[in-house]
């Protein structure tokens, strides 16, 4: 049985971080069959975090962000050719160039793309950007280096905040428009959002919260010159970056019968994809940003993550399970970890801050810009976020993994807990934000209406 699984044909759709790590792991696990990796971009897998940081600052070029390979996965790379469909009965992946790739097992790692500006004509103006791909980053870095008079960033999530930070570091004037009450509020809740807002303004960002951009304006010759806001004000700018979160790349699976929708492709803890009726498949797997999976630490809610570390860990579990029989398969139970660097702050998160009802500052203080905030849900620790205190995070990760009680007791805090009363975590409804959370709790709702098939009596 094991030998059979280590032969045959495996196709990975997504020449991404998850796709690369899965390909490497398959070979490390003894897979000797044919391996094909499909990617819609023309480039080999590259690293995305530098695109909103070092590349925008001009410290590295976008074309130097290729991911190092741990080993040669001995794969056929089909780059620059998107997958357009999946035939699960015939076990074939359909490609945009008309080719069909037969498979015995398939890994879907198609990730996400930047959510575009909803008005196509306005989004096509010269000077309007999104930031997701290597080409996006290279184009935006070139515009920033040219010294625009002002940059407008739409969306105050992690990507929007990092872009604003890079602009200020370059000495550029920047306005951030956020529909919600503050930057990062969807990911970190209200208390840390107040600190983030203070850091934006303290570094000279024109931060406007509780407003939406109603229109992007051109100059008549197709160049972006400014925007109108819902409060009646306007912003004059040369560059606009639309940072409205991500869209999962699942459209090519529309006729596949898999449980794929706007929230991603549902899979079990072993990375096996579900079909639309909740039946697990045994030859289709999912990993990375496109997937959503149940996690026992978070009441088996389906988690949808946009984290570097999750893509790596999930890809390795998926690859292991693709070439091992049932009793040897492993679950993907990694606790989410995420980090961001902006405005001189190092923000690191473990767990799911949005899965919380209360928070408490266990170490440091907001005033010192150095702290550890612990999140709880129904009396149990579910997350922690550190600001310029990253070394504390391992300790809190252990508390999350062991379902420790909230608020944390002595030893988990540098102050008497009686002096620090837990306050509501103040995580808003994502519908009221212009930036999406990097961790989404998607629940069990299907993404489309199903025809319930009744058994014949």
Summarize this structure as a short list of keywords or feature phrases.
single chain, 457 residues, alpha/beta, FAD/NAD(P)-binding domain, 3 domains, 30 strands, disordered C terminus
Radius of gyration: 23 Å
**CATH homologous group name of the largest domain:** FAD/NAD(P)-binding domain
Structural class: alpha/beta
Kindly report how far apart the N and C termini lie: 37 Å
CATH architecture descriptor name of the largest domain: 3-Layer(bba) Sandwich
Strand elements, count: 30
Instruction: Classify the beta-strand content into a percent band.
Output: 25-35%
What count of domains describes the coordinates? 3
CATH topology assignment of the largest domain = FAD/NAD(P)-binding domain
Helix content: 10-25%
Low-confidence stretches: 444-455
Report the biggest beta sheet as strand number plus sense, adding barrel if it closes: 6 strands, mixed
Mean pLDDT: 91
Keywords: FAD, Flavoprotein, Oxidoreductase
Pfam families: Pyr_redox_2, Reductase_C
Cofactor: FAD
Protein name: FAD-dependent oxidoreductase
Draw up the topology in text.
Layout (H helix, E strand, L loop, with lengths): L1 H4 L3 E5 L3 H12 L5 E6 L36 E4 L3 E5 L4 E4 L4 E3 L2 E4 L3 E3 L5 H4 L4 E2 L4 H12 L5 E4 L3 H12 L4 E5 L6 H4 L1 H13 L3 E4 L3 E6 L5 E6 L4 E3 L2 E4 L3 E3 L11 E2 L2 E3 L5 E3 L5 E7 L4 E5 L5 E5 L2 H15 L14 E6 L2 E7 L6 E8 L4 E8 L2 E8 L5 H9 L21 E2 L14 E3 L16
Parallel strand pairs: 1-2, 1-7, 2-3, 7-21, 9-16, 10-11, 10-16, 11-12, 19-22
Antiparallel strand pairs: 4-5, 5-6, 8-17, 13-14, 14-15, 18-19, 20-21, 22-23, 23-30, 24-25, 25-28, 26-27, 26-29, 27-28
